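Homework help board

Subject: predicted structure for assignment chain

Our instructor gave us this sequence and asked us to write out the predicted structure in C-alpha cell form, then describe one feature. I got the C-alpha cells but I'm not sure how to describe them. Can anyone check?
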Amino acid sequence: MRKELLTFPRVMGIVNINDDSFSGDGTLDVDVALETAIRMAREGADIIDVGAESARTNREAIAVEREVDRLIPFIEGFSRACELIDPRDDLQIWPPLLSVNTWRPPVVEAVLQTGQCDIINDIGGLVDDTNAKLCFEYNCCLLIMHTVGEPKVPHTGQRYEDLWGEMETFFEDRLKRVRTIGLSDDQIILDPGIDFAKQCGDNLEIYREAERLTQFDLPILLPISRKTVIGDVLGIENPADRDAGTIACLVRGLVAQANVFRVHNVKAVTDSVRVIAAIRGQ
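My C-alpha cell output:
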C-alpha cells in the first residue's frame, strides 16, 4: 500500500450514501452510489471513499445499524462492478482501493468482516485504540485524521496557541499507539483534518505549511474538495461552485508533496494531476 500511494499523486473519490452531505451529492440509493463510484473509477480514481453518515455537526448521528445497512450492499457490489470496466490508464491503481469513512468500532468491524475494505478512514481522531486494533486484526490500512473531541459535536470555538505544535504532538501520540498495537508504516496514512475543529485561518496555515507533514515519512492525505475555507476565501456559499478553489489547493498540495487528494470532482482533479505529472516528466 505504501509504495502505491507514494509513487504517484493519488485521487480519492468521495461517495456519500446519505441525504445530508454538505456538498449536496449524497444519495440513499445504493445503486446510484455504485454508479457514482464506477463513474469515478472510469475517470481515474485510485481510491473510492464511501461514507454513510454525514460528518456535519448540525446533524444527529444515525444508528449504527442504519450505517451498516447502507454500507454493506455498496461494499459487496463495488468489486463486482469494477470487474466490468477498464482503468483510465496505466497510472491508475486498479482495481481502485476501497476506503470506508466511519468512526464507530461496531461499524468498522462490520465492514472489515466483508474482507473487501482496504482503508478505514477514521474521522474520530482515535479517541481510543479499538479501531486501530481492528485494522491490525483484519490487516487493513488506517487513515488517522487530526481533530479535537468526538465527531458529530460542534467545535466551532476551538482555538490553538500553536496549531502545528499541537498537530505534531497529536500524530506522534497516535503513531506511537498504533505501532505498539502492531500496525506497520505500510498500513498508516495521515490527514491534517481540514475544517475539523479548525477555523479559516487554521486551514490556510495547514495548506501554507503542509510540507511539515512529510516529517513523519508516511503517506499524507490532503482534503481539498469544496472545503469551507475555499468558500470563506472566495465568498462562495454553494460547495458545488468551489471546484476552481479545489484545484488551487491541489496544486499547493502537490508542491507540498502530499500523496492523496480526497475530492468530489474526480475528472477535473485527475486531469490536473496528469498534466502536472507530464510537465514534471513523471
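Reply (TA_rk): Your C-alpha cells look well-formed. For the description, you could write something like this. The first strand starts at residue 10 and ends at 16. That's the kind of observation they're looking for.
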